[in-house]
Fold these 2 entries.
Entry 1:
Amino acid sequence: MPAVPNGVRGAVITGWGTALPEKVLTNVDLESMMETSDEWIRDRTGIVQRHVGGTTAGLSTESGRQAIEMSGCDPADIDALILATTTPDRCVPATASTVQELLGLSCGANDLNAACSGWVYALVNAHGLIAMGANKVLVIGTDTLDRITDYTDRNTGILFGNGSGAALIEAVDGPGQLLSWDLDSVGAAESALFAEIGGVLEMEGKEVFRRAVRLMADSATKAMAAAGVDAEDITLVVPHQANIRIISASLDRLGIPLEKASIVLDRTGNTSAASVPLALAEALDENRVADGELILFVGFGAGMSAASAVVRWSPDAAESIA
Ligand code: UT7
């Protein structure tokens, strides 16, 4: 649960982007595919629709391109690309390599798999690269879960969808936005949610729910303590979008009102590594955080993994270097 040490080279987010495939699968559509109902799914999850189709490389290229354009940086100046995904297009090579080529980058590129916590893991890893001298890092979270979801299984088929979100971070002179971070994994619980290679997602829903609430609250508490901030100091929470009842219960534990959370799951379902950057992008587009205010990222997922970060928002890159 480290606080970012004094004197470490920091970074700011200077651009962001999103991508969702065109095809929408509504709860009503699912009623003809499995024994479920729109009403049950809305009540028990908060989800109304999800997007399906597309490829991990294609969606990543779209969100990544938007983030680069918003930042105004030259793609040739990007030092690294990290793509958080559980659903690479192929086993080998990393899908990040394909995205690198499609975006015209000439930097190191790797995939990172920490399931639904992946984008927050990638953001922390990217700050590590910045501390080691990188100037600009593109951090993408993308999943195409329709490829590993059994849409006849009502236990899992109602939850998942496809999407992508990206942020470009740039080094600054002096401290950057990231104040603290926490990365967790409870490998002993991996059987609660998994997919074999070539298989589909299998899940003990209740067990995942129970652990998720605790993991999110614990991870966020550790990150806030390391940053030296309290729940009431947080302006915006960007949680993993799995189930509105999980978000609500974990924020209850933390003493943070649900209104402070950015919620997109009603329109996207659970998009795994894409869910945090999708929710972040929407909140930033809606100007929900002002200069100097605090954002709490908190994710959980298969593994079972968890990841949190506390960020002090600064809205422009005026101080970024290189
Ligand atoms: O990124 C991490 C990904 N995974 C998660 O976050 C999943 C965490 N778990 C959950 O979100 C919830 O456990 C689920 C949404 C998967 C299930 O919700 P629940 O409130 O835990 O439902 P349940 O399994 O306790 O089932 C309650 C009732 C049962 O009927 P009876 O036994 O009370 O008559 C189920 O058979 O609801 C029934 N049911 C459904 N009915 C309609 C379960 N799934 C469905 C369904 N449609 N899809």
Entry 2:
Amino acid sequence: MIITIDGPTASGKSTTAKLLAQRLGFFYLNSGYLYRALAYLLMRDKGYSLETIGDPTEPDIQTILDTKRLEYDCDSQGNPIIRFDGSNITPYLKTGSQIDQASSLASAHAIVRHILLDVQRDIGKKHDLVIDGRDTGSVVFPYADFKFYLTAPLELRAQRFMNDEQRRGNKMSIEQATKQLKIRDERDMTRSIAPLKIPQGAIIIDNGLYTLEETVEILYQMIRHNQ
Ligand code: C5P
């Protein structure tokens, strides 16, 4: 079974998806980590910067998105683990606004999306899956068994985003958080390939009205009663 959860940045989809996967005993695929891993490695190994990462060369993309080198797995708590050439790079993938921006820029590239489409579908062939991202119900798994679109008001998402960044040691004002979110939302929604949108047939949930536990419970009950 495939369950997709899409939505804008800081809509709570990753935590919801992880907890839902745990509850169902499914594999959790956080597709954002794949884009983050690519951006991190393009900067670390290939010398890209925020100015150039939106237009990486095909050989550079292919060297990094080689499935013999880049592996996606989950630990016993369902947290994503990304390894490159056997070493765990996960701690570097959520460490600040540079990697946030770089992954957003690199993710608009056609070849990047094309290769990662196959990577995600291959994982879906091996597991019952809860996957979260921007295009998982619209492009990656358009025939998913259940599709959800999570959202929340901008002010609330900005507050969550700021809290997350501060927990990771990045000082940020609410104005800066709001500005960064708007830029990323705009870029994700207006890119020509696989933009963020509400997938056809998706159930929309505004989780500004619910706690995390309530959100997971709503999704879980919808799946249980419609199987
Ligand atoms: O979800 P997260 O913020 O970790 O994703 C990092 C970036 O990767 C996002 O800003 C988005 O631009 C991109 N992304 C995407 N498609 C997905 C998942 C993430 O374009 N399915």
